[in-house]
From TrEMBL:
This is Ribosomal protein S35, mitochondrial. Residues 277-318, 338-377 are annotated as: Disordered. InterPro entries: Ribosomal_mS45 (IPR021036). It comes from Penicillium salamii. GO terms for molecular function: structural constituent of ribosome.
Length: 377
């Protein structure tokens, strides 16, 4: 068998293989194409739209180069004037730029909630700010104070610049009425109300929003004496606030759900409906109307505080703490019974004891449904 031809070049021949010899082995046509290629340096043509853009920036658009403190710097200000201060897009007049809380109003929210110990609901009604936003403001101000104590730097120049360029809601002066920052009684659409139901009702039977909610929930109608006690849905709201357990349930097991309540009960501030009814019924008794509203808020806050205290007492009663000597850990021991109600049908209920320890998650198991199948509203 003939020996194989070795195509490998030994290291001893490398000094004799110069660059000229390697280039000369290439075809002349390919070498000329490689060395003749150059990058293009031709300037881009100045289009008509590009010229118009620079002309506008040097004439009318020059006003937008530096913003006026306290005013928005939108393009629509040049075309439509101050009336379009909250509409940044000329071709979309339906979009409105929402205002943000001013620094003074933000500090006032924190002082009323933390320093004066007022309820979030009362502060929301007085200042016209949503309760979720009030809770977020309190958390952010607490975080800011903690960072100041730790000596961390805050982006205060950036915050001041943003407050100068976007609309803000200022804090009213003493004796003036506070401008509402946003709607505080918005109600999201409940999924049960999406169905169209034809429900015949006799003319002699009263049918209001309370009955409509029971129809949407497929719940039986109220008894005659129960329906007679509710002259207006806002009357039911006060009962639910004082005792939420009076809300009935329909269905069994995982399909169980609360009976749909009227909008007067589900809105964030149900007591405002009763306040407006009092104003319409007694237009000349402002002081008496304000006193009744204060009493409603006090009863509501007291009922909520009692529920929190009872829940805390139940948790402490079931919980035992044990701290070993010379240890910085505290062990919380709670007695539990492993039944279907306490651990679920599969033993993996979120409220079961030991949920976080020793139970592998099933998100990687084949065949498991990983998308939400139910939305609570």
């Amino acid at each position: 068998m003939a020996p194989r031809v070795q195509t490998r070049v030994s290291n001893s021949l490398l000094p004799y293989l110069t660059s000229t010899s390697s280039i000369s082995s290439l075809p002349s046509s390919s070498s000329s194409q490689c060395f003749s290629r150059q990058f293009s340096v031709t300037a881009a043509p100045q289009t008509k739209l590009r010229r118009q853009m620079f002309e506008w920036l040097s004439t009318e658009g020059a006003e937008l180069k530096h913003h006026i403190p306290g005013e928005t710097n939108y393009v629509t200000r040049i075309k439509d004037g101050p009336m379009s201060a909250t509409r940044p897009f000329p071709n979309n007049p339906n979009f409105v730029s929402e205002s943000i809380l001013s620094e003074e109003l933000r500090n006032e929210v924190y002082n009323r909630v933390v320093e004066e110990k007022k309820s979030v609901r009362a502060v929301s009604m007085d200042l016209g700010i949503d309760m979720k936003r009030i809770a977020a403001v309190v958390r952010l101000v607490e975080l800011e104070k903690r960072q100041r104590e730790q000596g961390k730097h805050l982006a205060l120049p950036y915050a001041r610049a943003i407050h100068e360029m976007v609309p803000t809601t200022p804090l009213a002066e003493a004796g003036e009425r506070q401008t509402y920052h946003e709607p505080i009684n918005d109600l999201p659409a409940h999924p049960l109300t999406g169905a169209q139901i034809f429900y015949p009702v006799s003319e002699s039977r009263p049918f209001n929003r309370v009955e409509a909610g029971r129809v949407f929930s497929s719940a039986p109608a109220l008894e005659q004496h129960e329906a007679a006690e509710i002259s207006h849905p806002s009357d039911l709201a006060e009962k639910v606030i004082e005792n939420p357990k009076i809300i009935g349930w329909v269905g069994k097991g995982k399909n169980a759900r609360e009976i749909l309540q009227p909008a007067d009960v589900r809105i964030p501030h149900p007591h405002m409906v009763a306040l407006e009814r009092d104003r319409m019924a007694h237009p000349n008794e402002r002081r008496a109307v304000a006193e009744r509203q204060t009493q409603r808020l006090e009863r509501q806050d007291a009922a909520e505080q009692q529920r929190r205290d009872r829940a805390q007492a139940r948790r402490e009663k079931k919980l035992q703490t044990f701290t070993p000597e010379k240890s910085r850990f505290e062990y919380r021991i709670r007695e539990t019974t492993y039944t279907e109600q306490t651990t679920g049908s599969d033993g993996r209920a979120p409220w079961a004891a030991g949920r976080r320890y020793g139970v592998p998650h099933r998100d990687r198991t084949r065949g498991e449904v990983k998308i939400p199948t139910r939305v609570e509203a």
